[in-house]
Specification:
It comes from Neptunicoccus cionae. It holds the Pfam family PDDEXK_1. InterPro entries: Ds_break_AddB, P-loop_NTPase, PDDEXK-like_dom_sf, PDDEXK_AddAB-type. Residues 712-943 form the PD-(D/E)XK endonuclease-like domain. This is Double-strand break repair protein AddB. This protein has 988 residues and is an alpha/beta fold. It folds into five domains: 10-86 and 178-281, 3-Layer(aba) Sandwich (Rossmann fold), CATH 3.40.50; 92-173, no CATH class; 311-376 and 563-687, P-loop containing nucleotide triphosphate hydrolases (Rossmann fold), CATH 3.40.50; 382-554; 706-943, Lambda Exonuclease, Chain A (Alpha-Beta Complex), CATH 3.90.320.10. The protein contains 35 helices and 26 strands. The strands form seven sheets. The chain has a six-stranded parallel beta sheet, with helices on both faces. It has a six-stranded parallel beta sheet with strand order 7-16-15-8-14-9. Strands 20, 21, 22, 23, 24 and 25 form a six-stranded mixed beta sheet that branches. A hairpin with a 2-residue loop joins strand 17 (640-641) and strand 18 (644-645). Helix 19 runs antiparallel to helix 20.
Length: 988
């Protein structure tokens, strides 16, 4: 196939050519005149399995023939003619588990490095370091030569650990995949030096960026009938630029640096690299523009010399080129979906290339509007599939008390009770949620669940359902720690029992389809290597399972559209389409941010000969440059992400800077690119725009009829009537109530109830006189009450500590209160009617004391700060109205009396306060009567059918969102808008 030559044989396919088609064309041209058996003997090494499939498709397009032997470069250690016998590699998971045990011991010895839960992630990063060292041929002994005297103590600890690891990792006995790969490359190099193969051997599609791959490729290039075909060679580079790129690590972030470095190591000059085929780039002018824009920093002065030479062909360079600069990622995804759809309508094959998986999911979701399902090469992350989510939910329940949220998330998952027969599981779950879980206890009481089921005596299936839940989930709470096999067994058994349902169906949906089969493989893999994990805590198991599940993807068999695809950057190296979209071109995405190595920093890597992180940026830049060679090209990025501005990819910035520096012609070209993109942005903005404009809702003030007006209020709701009448209308007239959350949360309401109970119990326990150590007695009572009323141990400690800070102040104040009056009545209910209005005011007073003259002293406890004097004058009338009720004997248990003192007692204990706050109000009978008369006038005004209930009239905090704001359509009107009174309802 090849003519004899004295130097390595390296070819290339230029940027802008379909690599696979160009390779097949060049291969067929070289085989012309040879028998078909020559192709059958040819051995081709490709960079991915996808490319292997693509080559077979292209070779068989014109009919049957003898196919060449197509192998993957990363699998040469399993070559049937491997010259050496290599041991089987340690599985990726077993190595991670082994390393995790070592990392766990390190973290146990020095907890300042990271928490124990991070050991599996750290083990994964450590495995990456080992892979790189083995691939680059750096022996573990080299770690001993690193000097970190001028660096922080963290790196010295890291180095000490790595040196200990090196003593346990035998580099002379290859057991890791990278070890085997390098050993195989060395073995082939040695064998072929003596007895080269007679058949053609060709390595294609790889840039040779990894040392072990480059070693094998150089051996192939040196064979008498061997050749290497590089992808995406930039023919616009000069020899000077090329030679500089192949030097030491000065420009590894350039797209051509990997190719240049490989050729330098192989002893091949730029002029010695011939084109593999006669295929020409789709747009050579654009290739030249992008090449100049991406020159390394030391050569950007060439913009001044070579930039003007681009002007005559600038119109040709921007032909078919679009730049989409969307406001948001959502707008970007919609614009890209529209562009893909337009390409399909024109009969063109289109592809979206991006490393941003969030963007691909958004674009796919928009395409589904038109029943277009793209062929996504990456598949779906397994942890985001239904089985992955279901298994993670089960894992999160292990080793801890079951919460209502966890229970409902499991019971409502589509894989729960997914057998053939239809059951009542979801109906029972909805009923239990509504009746017991909403606003109920923070944890599931399994005995209480059974009791609830037994109340429905007519439906025994409910008890069967409850027993099924207890049988499945109760064992999870008792699992604390153990070995991996036991945890896997419990996890698997629970998941299968939940999927089978109460009827224990064997034909459930958990393990079906590609996603279920992949989830099964995860369990099998974990079980196979479980002995390497050692003892684990539940937190360790959850972290391990999440780590393993998150590293897997599932390719689902779906009828995708043959003309639209979504690729990662790897696929774009060897294939192209009529339309290529490079999306998500923001700097943290393209190129990605270099992940910090927790084990070796840049200086340490350099000392032992590992390449710097910029190498990965160079590979990403090469993918970008190849994508830019398409006939039709779209570059897109968003200007904002959430509330933060984004930074456009450095490559887009370079291209635009170069073009804008070319004078008016260049600026006009940039304008053309952005105008092309603006067309798609405008279409995207119209997609969700309604056909007709809907006027915003006015600020409401509903006017219910006379028969539907207020009949009763509590004293605590009066302030709300003054500040936000609409909320009272929604609550009291419409009878609306916010749905309680699943389970209780330790919020301000729970804290207020608990503190009220603490004081109630304390005063009840010591009604006549305080004990000698009243502060200790108060805290003892608080501990008892919090233990009973607050089922969160952490909040018990926090709230007890806050009460302890002000306990001395409280007992001193309590002693003074005891001197003013006694005969305490607590949590006492009362009411007073306005007969002329058919209205009742009700109250539940925290505490009412009686002095020697028979007068009342009314107290109210506040878990936060008490109101201010100004607030009680105009808004907070709670105690004044309680006084008005007491003055007429509305509190039946204590009879009639005249209130003479009102006091709010703040029990916040926030920050470092050692004293609470109080607000005392001295009242006279005349003041009480005046307050009552004001209240009667307020109620009378809202009893009138001419009076509406306006929204948010006198809010204390306008910036806060309140319970019924969504019903009032807040956001469509401003606080300064006048309320619009609207008659609502009927009397009948």
């Amino acid at each position: 196939m090849f003519e004899p030559t004295s130097q390595p044989r390296v070819f290339a396919v230029p940027i802008g050519c379909d690599f696979s088609r160009s390779f097949i064309a060049g291969l067929q041209a070289r085989l012309a005149g040879h028998g078909p058996e020559v192709l059958g003997r040819t051995e081709i090494f490709v960079n991915t399995q996808r490319m292997a499939r693509r080559l077979k498709e292209l070779l068989t397009e014109d009919g049957a023939l003898l196919l060449p032997k197509i192998r993957v470069l990363t699998d040469i250690a399993n070559h049937p003619d491997l010259p050496v016998v290599l041991p089987e590699p340690v599985s990726k998971l077993r190595r991670q588990l082994t390393l995790a045990q070592l990392v766990g011991r390190l973290l146990a010895a020095d907890g300042s490095i990271a928490p124990q839960s991070a050991k599996f992630d750290l083990a994964q990063s450590l495995a990456a370091v080992l892979d790189e060292m083995q691939g680059e041929g750096v022996p573990m002994s080299a770690l001993a030569e690193i000097s970190v005297e001028d660096q922080s103590g963290h790196w010295q600890r890291s180095l000490d650990f790595l040196n200990i690891l090196a003593q346990h990792w035998d580099s002379d006995n290859p057991t890791d995949p990278q070890d085997r790969q390098r050993a195989a490359a060395l073995a082939f190099t040695a064998k072929w030096a003596d007895t080269p193969p007679e058949h053609p051997v060709i390595a294609i599609g790889s840039t040779g960026s990894r040392a072990e791959t480059a070693l094998f490729m150089r051996a192939v290039a040196a064979l008498p009938q061997g050749a290497v075909v590089l992808p995406g060679l930039d023919r616009a580079l000069s020899v000077e630029n090329w030679d500089a790129l192949g030097g030491e690590f000065v420009s590894l972030d350039n797209p051509q640096s990997a190719l240049a470095y490989f050729c330098r190591q192989a002893g091949v000059a730029l002029e010695d690299i011939a084109d593999w085929s006669d295929h020409t780039p789709a747009n050579p002018e654009r290739n030249a523009l992008v090449s100049l824009a991406l020159r390394p920093a030391p050569f950007t002065d060439q913009w001044l010399d070579e930039g003007p030479k681009l002007l005559p062909a600038l119109d040709k360079a921007i032909e078919g080129w679009t730049l989409i600069e969307a406001e948001t990622p959502k707008e970007e995804s919609m614009a890209l979906a529209l562009r893909l759809r337009a390409a399909l309508e024109q009969g063109k094959r289109a592809v979206l290339i991006t490393p941003d998986r969030t963007l691909t999911r958004r674009v796919s979701a928009v395409l589904q509007r038109w029943n277009i399902l793209p062929d996504d090469s990456a598949g779906r992350p397994l942890h985001l599939t239904p089985p992955g989510i279901f298994l993670r939910l089960v894992a999160n329940c292990m080793g801890q008390r079951l919460t209502p949220l966890d229970l409902i998330a499991l019971l409502k998952h589509p894989l729960t009770d997914s057998g053939v027969r239809e059951g009542d599981s979801r109906r029972f779950a909805r009923e239990y949620e509504k009746q017991k879980l909403r606003g109920g206890a923070p944890f599931i009481d399994f005995d209480g669940l059974r009791d609830w089921a037994d109340k429905d005596t007519k439906n025994p299936a409910r008890r069967v359902w409850a027993d099924w839940i207890v049988r499945c989930l109760a064992p999870l709470e008792t699992m604390a720690e153990g070995d991996l096999p036991a945890m896997l067994e419990l996890h698997l058994a629970t998941a299968e029992a939940l999927a089978a349902g109460p009827s224990q169906e064997s034909e459930h949906e958990l393990w079906k389809m590609e996603t279920g089969e992949k989830a099964t493989q995860v369990f099998n893999t974990l079980a196979k290597d479980a002995d390497a994990a050692g003892p684990l805590s539940i937190a360790d198991y959850r972290a391990l399972f999440s780590n393993v599940l998150g590293s897997e993807t599932a390719r689902e068999a779906r009828a995708s559209h043959p003309m639209v695809a979504i690729w990662g950057t790897l696929e774009a190296r060897v294939e192209t389409a009529d339309l290529v979209i490079l999306g998500g071109m923001n700097d943290p995405v393209w190129p990605g941010v270099e992940s910090p190595d927790p084990w070796l920093n840049r200086a340490m890597r350099k000392q032992i000969g590992l390449p710097p992180p910029e190498r990965l940026i160079g590979l990403s830049a090469h993918d970008f440059q190849q994508g830019c060679g398409a006939a039709e090209l779209v570059l897109s990025h968003s200007l904002r992400d959430g509330d933060a501005p984004t930074v456009a990819s450095r490559w887009i910035v370079r291209i635009l800077n170069l073009m804008n520096g070319l004078g008016d012609t260049g600026k006009a070209a940039v304008k053309t690119l952005t105008e092309n993109g603006q067309h798609w942005i405008d279409l995207a903005r119209q997609m969700d725009r309604p056909a007709t404009t809907v006027p915003p809702a006015p600020r409401p003030a509903p006017m219910p009829p006379a028969g539907k007006r207020l009949k009763q209020l509590s004293v605590t709701q009066v302030e709300r009537l003054i500040r936000d009448p609409y909320a009272v209308y929604a609550q009291k007239i419409l009878q609306l109530k916010r749905l309680d959350p699943l389970g209780r949360e330790p919020d301000a309401l729970i804290r207020g109830i608990a503190l009220h109970k603490v004081v109630e119990v304390f005063v009840h326990r010591y009604p006549d006189s305080l004990p000698d150590d009243a502060r200790k007695a108060l805290l003892d009572v608080a501990e008892e009450v919090l233990r009973d009323k607050v089922p969160w141990p952490a909040m018990q400690r926090i709230w007890l500590a806050r009460l302890a800070r002000i306990s001395g102040w409280f007992v001193a104040q309590e002693a003074e209160r005891r001197l003013r009056g006694g005969s305490t009545a607590q949590e006492i209910e009362g009411a007073r009617e306005i007969e002329s209005l058919d209205f009742k005011l009700v109250a539940k007073a925290d505490r009412i004391d009686t002095d020697e003259a028979g007068n009342f002293l009314i107290y109210d406890y506040k878990s936060g700060s008490p109101p201010t004097k100004a607030q009680t004058d105009f808004f907070n009338k709670q105690l004044q109205l309680e006084a008005a009720i007491a003055a007429t004997g509305g509190f039946e248990k204590i009879g009639q009396g005249m209130p003479v003192a009102l006091e709010y007692i703040g029990l916040s204990g926030a920050a470092q306060d050692t004293k609470g706050k109080t607000l005392s109000l001295d009242v006279t009978p005349a003041e009480i009567d005046a307050v009552w008369q004001e209240f009667v006038e307020l109620v009378q005004s809202y009893q009138s059918t001419e009076k509406g209930f306006p929204a948010r009239t006198r809010m204390q905090q306008m910036s806060f969102a309140y319970e019924f704001d969504h019903l009032a359509r807040k956001g469509e009107w401003e606080e300064s808008d006048a309320p619009v009174e609207i008659p609502v309802g009927r009397n009948d």
